[in-house]
Amino acid sequence: MSVLVLENIAFGWNGDRRVLSDLSFALEAGESVGLIGPNGAGKTTLFLLCAGIVKPSAGRIELLGAAPGDPSLRGKVGLVFQNAGEQLFCTTVAEDVAFGPRNLGLPAEEVRARVAEALALVCLAGVESRAPHHMSGGEERKAALAAALAMRPELLLLDEPTSDLDSRSRRELLDVVRHLPGGKVIASHDFEFLHELCDRVAVLSDGRIRGEGTPAAVFGDEDLLARCGLELSRGMRALLGLGRA
Ligand SMILES: Nc1ncnc2c1ncn2[C@@H]1O[C@H](COP(=O)(O)OP(=O)(O)OP(=O)(O)O)[C@@H](O)[C@H]1O
Ligand SMILES: [Mg+2]
Asked: What is the pTM (predicted TM-score) of this model?
């Protein structure tokens, strides 16, 4: 069963400059898909469309059988934006993480338990009373992720989740995300992270998905990557056992 469907999507900011054209993509239940593409390809725009923050000029989007923004999706779709800090708006971290579960009408005890669980998952326990806007970039990212996880979403959309994270935090994130149930789409320039985590990788370039397959197949296809304006780092080439460029 597809938990996310995008069919023949077209979108241009301010109605003119085309970012996405005739884009189709589907995510199956329980699947983890990495979304790669050069800067400005439209990965974040795609997430904004899924969140219902902007509307496509053509095509159909369905999340868990509903249209973006549908009230039935409340708490079922977790989104962590590239600028994660802007998602935090409460006076303390605990309040921010509690916001979603509380809005779902869960009892106070359950909200408290979910806050503690989510902060522990992202290794942020102990910062409950800190002001989100006084945290570091990596801490903000973890807090925004905790806020999404506290809802126990069925579908998780993560935009550049490893940016700002140190190596240990990045590994901890990998372990957490890997063990989460539900479908996941992860937009990232961190190919090693996607290679380790994802069942499938999709390449977005020139407005559409230009190729998809297992991480080994996509990252091993240097012609596809080059056509899409992407290239592998030296570390990634070594990981894949490819010769020097
Ligand atoms: N709010 C906006 N108003 C106008 N144009 C925008 C807006 N947000 C993004 N764009 C443009 O849309 C295009 C796609 O941007 P988007 O942020 O979706 O790319 P991306 O693939 O997420 O890039 P990155 O890898 O840098 O995060 C870019 O050309 C960008 O300049
Ligand atoms: Mg982006």
From this structure: 0.96
CA-nearest residue, atom 6 of ligand 1: 13
* 197: in domain: no
> What is the whole-number distance in angstroms between the Cα of residue 212 and the centre of ligand 1?
21
Rounded-to-5 percentages of helix, strand, coil across the chain: 40, 25, 35
Crossing angle (nearest 10°) for helices 108-121 and 137-149: 140
Which atom number of ligand 1 is nearest to the Cα of residue 47?
A: 18
**19 Cα: distance to centroid of ligand 1 (angstroms):** 8
CATH number at residue 173: 3.40.50.300
When the pLDDT of each residue in the chain is averaged and rounded to a whole number, the result is 94
What residues make up the domain containing 113? Answer: 2-30+39-177
For residue 14, the 8-state DSSP code is: G
Cβ of 45 less than 6 Å from ligand 1: yes
